[in-house]
Amino acid sequence: MKRAEQILGIVLLLFAIYIGYESTQIDTGGTIGSVGAGFIPFWMSVSLGIISVAMLVQSITLPSDRFAPTFFSEKTARMQVLWVLAGYLVAVAVMKPLGMLISLAIVMATTMPAFGARSWKVIAFTAIATPVIVYIVFGHWLKVDLPMGILENVLSIY
Amino acid sequence: METFQQLLMGFHVAATPFNLLLCFLGCVIGTIIGALPGIGPAAGLSILLPLTFGMNPTSGMIMMAGLYCGTMYGGTITSVLINVPGEAASVMTCLDGYQMAMQGRAGKALGIAAIGSFIAGTASVVFLMLLALPMVKFALSFGPPEYFALMLMGLCTVAGLTSGSVLKALAGTCLGILVATPGMDAFSGLPRLTFGLTGLLGGIDFVVVAVGLFGIGEVLYNVEQSMEMKFLIEKISIKEVWPNRAEWRASVGPITRGTLIGFLVGVLPGAGGTIATFLSYAVEKRVSKHPEQFGKGAIEGVAAPEAANNASTGGAMVPLLTLGIPGSGTTAIMLGALMMYGLQPGPLLFLKNPDFVWGVIASMYIGNVMLVIMNMACIPLFVKICKIPNYFLMPFVIVFATVGVYSVDGNIFDVWMLYVFGVMGYFMNKFGMPRAPVLLAVVLGPMVERALRQSLILSQGSYDIFFTRPISAVLLMMGLAAVLWPVFDMIWQRRRARRMAGA
Amino acid sequence: MQFNVRSIRVITLSVLVLSVLALAPPAFGAASFVPTRPIEFVCPSAAGGGLARFSETVGSIMESEKFVPVAMPRIYKPGGGFAVAMAYISEKKGNPHFLMSTSGPFVLTPLTVTLSGKKTITHKDLTMIGIMGFDEVVMVVKNDAPWKDMKELLAAAKAKPKSLRFGGSYVGSPDSLVVASIAKAAGVEFLYVPFQGGGEMNAALLGGHIDIMSSSPSDMMPHVEAKTMRMLAVAADKRIPRFKDMPTLKEIGCDLVRRTHRGIAAPPGISAEAVAYYENAARKVTETGAFKKYLDDGIMTPVFMGSTQASKFLDEYADVALNTMRDLGMGKK
Questions:
Q1: What residues of chain B, 15 to 44, have a C-beta less than 8 Å from chain C?
Q2: Which class is C138-252 in CATH?
Q3: Residue B12 distance to chain C (closest CA, Å)
Q4: Which ipTM did the prediction report?
Q5: Given this model, what pLDDT does residue B270 score?
Q6: Nearest neighbour of C223 by CB, restricted to B144, B324, B333
Q7: A63 touching B (Cβ < 8 Å)
Q8: Residue A91's pLDDT band (cuts 50, 70, 90)
C-alpha cells in the first residue's frame, strides 16, 4: 500500500506536468482580457503538481505501518475486477458497430457471474431481458435515439 | 395581504380535478425520470413538452411544475440507494445517504430527505411571497467579482467537507477543475485541451463524471468486496420511515439552516442549488458536536443539503418572476415553454397573467404535498431495491449508468468517458481519496473561471476589484476563514489536550 | 465501362436484399426522391434555446402538414458551438435521412477554429438546404441609462475610451462581431465582457455591472414593455415593424447589417433530387401560418433562400466575418 501511494503521487505529478505543458500551448484567441484560456488550466496543474509532490513526500517519509498492508485484498478479487473491466470495455467498444442493445447484453452476461450469479439460465434470461426493457423504456417511451448498430434495420426505434 | 389573496386565487386555479390529476401525473413521471441517471429535470421537461401542447397553458405548466418537483425527489432515491447522484445538487446527499443505506437505514434517509424537502419547499414559497422585492436588490448587487468570491469561498470549503486526507481532497479539487476545462472556451470560442477529439469539444458533462466516479466506481469496488459486503436490511414499515424523537431533534437545526442558505443562494441567478447544498453541509459539519460522523451516515448530512436544494427552487423563482430572468437551466426551459404557449415571460407576466403565475406557484406547493405523501408511502417499496441480490443490482447499475450517460447528448464518446471515470472512481475509492470534491469542482470550476475573467476585463486587469467591493471582500474573508479554521481548530485542540494532560 | 451479366445480377440481388431489409418499396428509375425512413433532425444546441424552438417548429410542421411522408424526430446534439453536430452530420455522407438546423455559429465556429490553425468541418463541407428566416441583433441599455440614443452612447464612448462595458456572448459569436464592427465603424473602444446565457447577462445589466449589451429583440420584448430596459438600435437593413421608433445602425452612421440566419443543412454528397425535395419542403414550411406566427412571435425577418442562394449567402457572410475576426486580433500571429 505504501508503494501504491507512491505510485499515485507520481502519476498525479506526471499528469500535472503534462497538462501544465499543454495549457501553455492553448491559443488565447485575440486580445480579450488579461487572463486567457490557458490561465486556469495552467495554475490548476501547478497546484496539482505541488500537492502531488507533498503526497509523494508524505508517502515516502511516513512509516509503512501507517498504511494498509496490501492494495488488493486477494488475487481472486483482483481477477474479478479485471474481468468486469474487460467485459465492460468490450461492450463499450462494440457499441457503435453492434448497437447499444447487444453491448448491454454483454455487460449483463459478463458482470453477473462476477457478482456470484451461478445459474446460467438466470444469466441468459436477464442478459436478454434487460436490453429489451431498455429498448422499450428509453428508446420507445423516452425517445432516446439509442445506437442500434446491426439491429438498425430490424428494429426501428420510432 | 394582497399576495395571500393572490395565492388563494392560485389554489383556486390549481385545485380543479383535472389540474390536480395533471400535477399528480407530473409528480409520478418526474420521480421516475429523476431516478434515471442522465435524464435530469431539463431533459425530462423537454420530453414532456410536446405532450402538454394540447392543453391550456396553465394546465401544461402545472404538469411541468409537478414534474420539476418530482425529479428533485427522484434524484434523492438513486443517491441514497445506489450511490448515483442524478444531478449536481444531490452529490452531497450521496455522502451520508448511501452510508445510511448500507447500515440498513435507507428508509430513514429517504424519509428525512422527503420531510426536509417538504419543509424547505414550503418555507421557500412563503419567503418568495414575502421577500421577493427586497431579495431582488440583493441578487442584482452580485456582479462578476461577487460571484467569483462566492464560488471561491465554496471551493475553499470543499476540502473540509469530507473526512480523510486534506491533501487528497485538495488534489481532487484541482483534478475536478481540470476535468471541467476541455471544450470550447467560453471567452474566445476556441477549443482547448481537446487533444484533437471531437467528443471533447462539448466538454465533459457533469453527469458523466458523477455517474462514473460514484456509480461505476462503486460497482467495481463492490466486485472486490462482493463476498463480504451486503446491505443490512431491516423490515421497514411506514412508521419506521418517520424519524424518531432523537432524529427529529438532530434534524430540525440542519433543515432550518439549510432552508435559509438554500433560499439565499438560490436567489442568485446561475449560482443555483449546488452551492447551496454543500454550503449547508459544510455549515452543519462545522456546528455539529460530532463532525466525525459526517460521511459515515449522519442524518444531518442528508437533511441539510436536501432542505437547501429544495429551498433553492423557491429562491430561483424570485429573479424569474420579478425580473424575467431564469436562475437555472430548468427554469430557462420552462420559460421557453411559456413562449411556445404564446405567453410572454418576463417582469410583466405577474401583472398580465396573475392567474397563471399564481396557479403555477400554488401547484408547486400542491406538488410538494403530493410528493411527500407519495414518497413516504412508497419508501418501503423503494427500499426493497436494496433487497435485490447484488448479482442483479450491480449489473443493472452499469446498464443504467451507460444508457443514462448516453442519453445526455446521444454520444458514444460519453460512454467511453464514463468508463474512464469509472476506473478513476474505483482507484480513488481504493486510495481513500474523497470523490465529492472532484464533482463539486467540476460544477464550480467553469463558474469560477468565468467570473474571474469577467471581473478582470471589467477592472482592466487589476485584482483590486475583488477587495474594493464590500460583498466580495467579505466573501473572500469568509473563504480565508474556511481555509484557516481547521488549522486554528487543530492548534486549539492540541493546546487543550496539553492542558488536560498537564492537569 | 462494361458490365457483364453476372455483375449486374449480383448488384440487382444485393440491392433487392437491402431494400427488403429496409422494409421499403424500391425507388429505382424514379427521378424524384422520397424519404423512406424517419429523418433524424439534429439540433446542434441544447433543448429550450432559440434554435431548439426553430427545430421543434419546423419538425412539427413538416410532420403535421405531411411535407415529408415519414416521422422527423428532433435529436439534440449540443456542444462545441455546433462542432459536435456538424461532425455527426458529416459522418453521414450521402445519407439523405439526416438533417440539421443551422444558425450563425454554423459558419462562425469553424472560422474561429480554422483561424487558430486547426482543421475542422466547415459549412462548405455540408449541403445547405435553405435559409428560412433572419434573427436580428439589438443594442440594449438599462431604462434609466444616461444615454438618450445610440449616438450619445457612442459619443460618450469616444470621449472616454474603454469606459463603457459591453456585454455579449463569447468572442467570435454573431453578436460579438456586431460589437466589434460598431467599435470599428464609430472609432471607439469598448470593454467587451463575454457572458454565458442571457439570464446572467440580463441580471448584470439590471444590476449596473455592464452598461450596454447585444441581444435578440424577442428576448428583450418583456423587459422593454416593463420599462426596465431600452433598445437603442438594431443591426438590420430596415427598421423592425414592431419597433418603428428604433433606428438601424445604418441610420446613425455605422454601415452595418449583421444578422444570424435560421436554416437547414444536410450531409455532404446527397443527391440533387434529395436536395430539391427538401428545398421544396422547407419552402412549403415557410408558407404555413404556423411558421409565420413563429417568426412573428420571435420578431424575426421572413425570407426564403434555396440551396444555391443560401450557400452563396453563407460564403459571403463567412468572408465578412473573417475580416472582422482578423480585426479583433483573433487567429495565430
A1: 42-43
A2: alpha beta
A3: 27
A4: 0.91
A5: 64
A6: B324
A7: no
A8: very high
